[in-house]
Every structure is written in structure tokens, then in C-alpha cells.
Specification:
Chain lengths: 382, 348
């Protein structure tokens, strides 16, 4: 309910798009008071505010005034999805319901909504879907089979499509009315269920928030206590030192320090806070959970290749005229990032010894590549 | 060498899938040629009975000749674009491998590489060796070439290569040997500069080896060593003996391997007999697979056949969908139970 009252409190966010550009995300939202106009509808973001669309190209189609002449121009959308400016709305509809100057549908002042999307088609579709969803809220549990549920969903989609695109509206409305009559009880029940579910969600959220506050409070208190403890300890040491006349100052300091440590330990050990206990339990549970799903140790990829390393000894430097230019090039104009001539040398030397002692295939062992596929390879290549 | 580990080279696709013996190479080529001839003869016969008897199809050897000629054109192109040696060598390997899976009679070399038309193998090589060039810059510099000429075949070439783009090259191995020679204890340190003409000669032999089948039979290091030994037999022996204990079995087998590589390289060093190639090329024009010649009867017939199949498939699908709508749940019943043909590919 609180969300629904937002528009009465005038919590509306306005978005100004720079001229020419129609992107809706570039500018920072500004909060404007909208107490002069009353409206409902629009699309709310999660915080319950309406982000309103407006651009510098806005022009009222009724009175033709635009942003250039009137900085405060604000276009609202009628229930027949035509835009007009606030002053036109005031002028036309203050005296009660009047026909829309564009399509002649009878409108009321209260039925104007702020524009959320640049494309009014989207606005319309969302409004219609919202309406349809309110009426057609059956769930899978209400049907005997999945097939029935799917049929029902398809019907709903049909109706929605008809409404959005104005396909035989009279018949569609009568379909909705028939459905409403037939399923009034169920619809009501489902909407109650939905509300209950939302309420439970909200309560859970609230509970969590309170708990968090409580924990923060406790932590603050503990900190304060500790600080006080330290303070009093220091004062005690000073007092004792005064009494001991500085003869064995070090001993006194040490003793009182020990005493304080003992006290602290006893406080922590004997009476841990209720929150701390809960925390401890949670930690133990988490530890148990991780112990249950113990990971197998990570084995990095191990390639078992023989890289002919015993066949050559790589030198630090070679006499190599072909790579001289690259090596002399200190600024690295000729090299890509990460290039090291040593690696190129290593690759070359490795390929010099790779497969040096491999025997060429003999005709007997020759298990033949492609003899049997030979025939179809050519033709399948076509 | 530790027995449990796979040597790096033997883990490469070059070793696994592109290593042949000279006999198996000949067999692959012969079977490819035979299959292609059979298919093309058949298409000619269907087109016009009796027309194929007048044709003389290419023999496998003639096909090799053509491929070799067009392989030899790649260095010119690379020189023009100033591509590094790596690109050139890779493109050559791609082209050779491509023609182990396809026949010249299906794809004229000019369609895959070189001169006026398709330079797909080279373009692919620039990309796989990290020397990319923009397609426009590439085709604009080659007369009468459209970007689509290159791109049309790109997937087919990649597919024929089995998408195995990594190639081990002999020129890198040669560089490695040249560097490693400096670690031979008796060697003068500055040999790399004072005897650079030996390296250059060896590099020329490595380049010549690209025209041969050597890389399909032997490992890059063996080819490089053979090239070095052709330039300076003494240096090559010196290095080989530093790698293997003298008198060992591997050293003697290596010697015989080097010998056969040398013959291959020497054979490849001779320029291709242009007159003979011209004759082969002329005959090829007559016996090219007519299905691949745009506008020919067989080409049109094949197109029509493909269209018919596609149409049939569409109809079948429509009927299936209708049936499903009529008799069951359009959302599908249970997931299990009914056997569904998921094979929607266009391969049938």
C-alpha cells in the first residue's frame, strides 16, 4: 500500500534527455514536486519512484508549445495514449470529462499518467499487461494438467495481443468479462495469496534489517566497554605507581597488566554475548559444510611431452645475423609485446632436432591414409 | 628419450595425419585420380552418351606436374607482397595437402591458387601464420580478382586440410641447426658470419625441397639437415655426429634417409618442363569435371538436382510439422519415448 501512495506524496523522478538524443539513461534523475497534477500509472522502479521520460524535442501536439519556449513543459499521456502538456490538460479537463482533442475519446483529468518510455507503444503494452495480469492470475496448481495450463496461458496471451493491437475490442472485452464472472472467486483468492506472499517477503526483509541493527548496536556497546576498561586500567596503574613510590615501577605495571588480561579473558570466556554465540554457531555450521564437500586437490594441467631437451643445450647468446636487427632495436619497434629472441632461438633449435631419428614410413606398416575415403573425399568436396 | 612421453613432433597433426611413404603417396594419388576419372566420365556420359571416349584424362603423374608448376608460382606472389618465408612455406604445404584430398580435374590449380583467380591457400596461410593482410589489399594487388574468389574456396580448403593449420617447417629447422652448430666444441664461434654462404646455399636447397614431396615423407629436421649436407657435407656430418654417438644405428639410418631426401631435392631443382605442362593444361580444359563448369549442361543438371532435393526436404518437414500438430502436443509430449530425427543437416 505504501508504494501505491507514492504518487500522492509527489515522489516522481524526472529525466531530461539532451536535445537530439533519445537515450534514456544519460542524465541524472531529478526529483520534482508534482503536487499540481494528480495521476497514477507509469512504471515504478524498485525504490517505488517513477522515472519520467522527457526530451528537449518535446512538443505538445495540442497547443504546439515546446521546450524552447517553455522550459517547464511537461507532457502527460492520456488513457488513449495521446500526449499533451499540463496546461492543455488544465484548460480542457478542469470542468469535467471532455473529449480528447486528437481522438475524441472522453477523458478525465485524473486519467493522465506521466510518460515512462519514449515509445508510447511500450507504455500501452505495460499498462495492458498489468491489467490482464490482475484479472488472469490463475496458477499451475489451479489446473488439472500442464496442457490445460498452457492452453490457458495461450488464451491470456491472445487476449493481451488483441488488447494491445486493438483487434476486435468488443469481443475481447466480452471474453474478459465472461472470464471474470466465471472465475471471480478464484481470482480473488489468488490475489489474496499474492498479497500474503508479498507481505511475508516484506516481513522477512524487515526482520533481517532489525537483526542487523541489533548486531551493530551490540558491537558498538562492546567497543565502548572495552574502551572504558582500558581507561580504568590505565588509571589504576597510575594510582598504584603513586602508592609504590616508583621503587619497582616496572613490576607494578606488569602485574596490573596481567590482572587486566585475566579479567578480560574471564569476561570473554564466561559470558560471551548472545549474538557472539549465534555467530560462533553459524561459523561452525559453515565450517562443517565446507568440510563435507571437501575439494579434491587441484592438479594443474600436465603435458607429458618430450621436448628434446636432452638433444641440445641452449646458449645465452648466438652469433645470428638474421636476428641482429631485432636484437639491436632497444625501443622494441620491431617486436611485438613479450617477444624474446631467446624463445625464437629455442623454438628453432628444438625444431632442428625434433624427429631427427624418425624413420620414414615403410610400405608395409603404412596403414594408409585415405585409401578408403579417397573416393568419396573428392566428390563430397563438391 | 623417456619412453612414457610423446615427443613434441609426434604429437603434431603433421606427423599424425600428413605423413606418408612414397608408396602410399602414389596410392592415394592413383585412387583419387581413378575415382575422379570414373565420376567425370559418368557425368560426360549422362550428358551426352559416348562423348567421353574421345577424352584423354590426366594421369596421376600429370596431375603432380600441374600441382608442382603452380606451387612454384607461390614464391613469386610472396615476393610481391613481401610475405615472410613462413607464409610462403605454409601456403605451399596447404596446397600440396589440398591436392591429396582433391583432384586437379575437379579444381584446376588456377582456381585454388596463383595468377588471376583463387589465392585462397596463400590467403589462409597469411592468417594462420599471424601475418594477416586485409582481403581488399590482397585482391586489389592481383589483377582480375574479387574478394569472393578467395572466400568462396576458403572453407573448402580449410576443410580439406582437416582444419589442421599448424605446419612444422624445414627452414626453421635449418636456422636451428645453424645456431646449434655454434655449440659444437670444435667449431669457431663466428662461423655464422664467416661462412654465411653455406647457410644461404642450404636455404636454397630447402626452398627447392618445397617443390618436392619431401615434407610429406620426411621430418623437417631431416630435410634441413639434408639441405645443409648438400651445401657442406662436412658441416652436416659434424653436427649429426655431435647429436648421435658415432657408429650408432640412428646415425647410419639418418645417413640413408638424407640420401633419399637429396635425390628428391635434386629432382625438384630442375625447372618444370613448360611445354609438357602446357600440353597437360590444354587437355585438362577438355576433361574438367563439367559439373564444376558454370553454364554447362551437367552443371545445370546438378543445380536442378540439388534444388529438387532441397524442395523435397522442405516438403517433408512441412508434412512432419503438420502431423505433429494434428496428432499431438505441439510442445512435444514426453522427452523420452518418441525417437526424433535430429539430423537437420543439409548433408543428405
Amino acid at each position: 500500500m505504501a508504494n501505491r501512495m507514492n504518487w500522492l506524496q509527489g515522489k516522481t523522478v524526472r529525466k531530461n534527455t539532451p536535445a537530439g538524443s533519445h537515450s534514456r539513461s544519460s542524465s541524472t534523475p531529478q526529483v520534482h514536486s508534482t503536487s499540481s497534477t494528480i495521476f497514477g500509472g507509469g512504471v515504478k522502479d524498485p525504490s517505488g519512484r517513477i522515472t519520467e521520460y522527457s526530451s528537449d524535442d518535446d512538443q505538445c501536439p495540442v497547443c504546439k508549445s515546446d521546450k524552447y519556449l517553455e522550459r517547464k513543459l511537461r507532457l502527460l499521456v492520456s488513457s488513449c495514449y495521446h500526449k499533451m502538456c499540463e496546461s492543455c490538460i488544465d484548460r480542457l479537463f478542469t470542468l469535467g470529462p471532455a473529449p480528447c482533442p486528437i481522438c475524441n475519446k472522453v477523458l478525465r483529468k485524473l486519467a493522465f499518467t506521466p510518460q515512462t518510455f519514449e515509445d508510447l507503444g511500450v507504455e500501452k503494452e505495460i499498462a495492458i499487461r498489468r491489467r490482464v495480469a490482475k484479472e488472469f492470475n490463475k496458477r499451475l496448481e489451479d489446473f488439472s494438467s500442464l496442457r490445460d495450463f498452457n492452453d490457458y496461458l495461450e488464451d491470456v496471451e491472445d487476449i493481451t495481443f488483441n488488447l494491445i493491437n486493438d483487434v476486435d475490442p468488443i469481443e475481447t472485452e466480452s471474453r474478459i468479462a465472461a472470464y471474470r464472472e466465471a472465475n471471480a472467486a478464484l481470482t480473488l483468492l489468488n490475489s489474496q495469496r499474492e498479497e500474503a506472499y508479498i507481505l511475508s517477503l516484506r516481513q522477512a526483509e524487515e526482520l533481517e534489517r532489525k537483526e542487523k541493527e541489533l548486531r551493530a548496536e551490540e558491537a558498538r556497546r562492546e567497543e565502548e566497554e572495552e574502551r572504558q576498561e582500558k581507561e580504568s586500567g590505565r588509571r589504576e596503574i597510575l594510582e598504584r605507581l603513586e602508592r609504590a613510590d616508583g621503587a619497582d615501577a616496572a613490576k607494578v605495571v606488569q602485574r596490573s597488566k596481567r590482572e587486566r588480561a585475566e579479567k578480560e579473558a574471564s569476561r570473554k570466556g564466561v559470558a560471551p554475548g548472545k549474538g557472539a554465540q549465534a555467530l560462533l554457531r553459524a561459523r561452525m555450521a559453515a565450517a562443517a559444510a565446507t568440510a563435507a564437500t571437501k575439494d579434491t586437490p587441484h592438479i594443474p594441467f600436465q603435458d607429458d611431452y618430450y621436448a628434446y631437451n636432452d638433444m641440445f643445450v641452449l646458449q645465452h647468446v648466438y652469433v645470428d645475423p638474421s636476428s641482429e636487427a631485432v636484437r639491436k632495436d632497444r625501443e622494441g619497434i620491431m617486436r611485438a609485446g613479450g617477444y624474446r629472441v631467446e624463445e625464437a632461438w629455442e623454438r628453432a633449435v628444438r625444431s632442428a632436432v625434433a624427429g631427427l631419428d624418425l624413420l620414414p614410413l615403410d610400405h608395409e606398416i603404412d596403414a594408409f591414409h585415405g585409401m578408403d575415403q579417397g573416393g568419396d573425399v573428392i566428390m563430397s568436396a563438391a | 628419450m623417456p619412453a612414457s612421453k610423446t615427443p613434441l613432433y609426434e604429437a603434431s597433426t603433421q606427423f599424425k595425419n600428413w605423413r606418408y611413404s612414397s608408396q602410399s603417396l602414389a596410392k592415394v594419388r592413383a585412387s583419387l585420380n581413378a575415382a575422379a576419372v570414373a565420376v567425370i566420365r559418368n557425368t560426360f556420359e549422362v550428358d551426352e552418351p559416348g562423348s567421353s571416349s574421345a577424352l584423354s584424362f590426366l594421369t596421376p603423374d600429370e596431375e603432380i606436374l600441374l600441382v608442382r608448376l603452380y606451387v612454384s608460382k607461390i614464391p613469386q606472389l610472396c615476393g610481391f607482397f613481401r610475405f615472410p618465408e613462413e607464409v610462403e612455406a605454409t601456403a605451399v604445404s596447404y596446397l600440396k595437402r589440398f591436392y591429396l584430398k582433391n583432384t586437379v580435374m575437379d579444381w584446376h590449380p588456377k582456381n585454388v591458387i596463383v595468377l588471376q583467380s583463387r589465392l585462397t591457400a596463400l590467403f589462409l596461410a597469411t592468417k594462420t601464420t599471424n601475418n594477416p593482410i586485409s582481403l581488399e589489399a590482397y585482391t586489389n594487388n592481383i589483377p582480375k580478382t574479387d574478394p569472393s574468389d578467395v572466400l568462396d574456396l576458403e572453407f573448402l580448403v580449410a576443410q580439406s586440410l582437416g582444419f589442421e593449420f599448424a605446419v612444422w617447417h624445414a627452414h626453421r629447422a635449418l636456422w636451428g641447426i645453424w645456431l646449434d652448430l655454434q655449440t659444437v666444441p670444435t667449431a669457431p664461434r663466428d662461423r655464422a658470419t664467416t661462412q654465411s654462404e653455406i647457410y644461404d646455399a642450404a636455404l636454397r636447397h630447402v626452398r627447392a625441397s618445397r617443390l618436392s614431396d619431401a615434407e610429406l615423407i620426411y621430418t623437417p629436421s631431416q630435410i634441413a639437415l639434408a639441405a645443409l649436407s648438400m651445401a657442406s657435407a662436412q658441416l652436416a656430418t659434424e653436427w649429426a655426429e655431435s647429436k648421435f654417438p658415432s657408429g650408432s644405428l640412428s646415425l647410419s639410418t639418418l645417413q640413408s634417409t638424407l640420401g633419399s631426401i637429396k635425390t628428391l631435392i635434386e629432382a625438384a631443382s630442375h625447372p618444370v618442363d613448360v611445354e609438357r605442362v602446357r600440353g597437360v593444361d590444354l587437355r585438362l580444359k577438355l576433361c574438367k569435371n563439367p559439373e564444376k563448369v558454370v553454364g554447362s549442361k551437367a552443371y545445370l543438371a546438378k543445380k536442378a538436382e540439388e534444388d529438387r532435393k532441397a524442395e523435397e526436404k522442405r516438403n517433408r518437414k512441412v508434412i512432419e510439422v503438420e502431423k505433429a500438430m494434428a496428432e499431438g502436443d505441439p510442445f512435444g509430449d514426453e522427452l523420452a519415448g518418441r525417437l526424433v530425427d535430429y539430423d537437420d543437416d543439409d548433408d543428405d
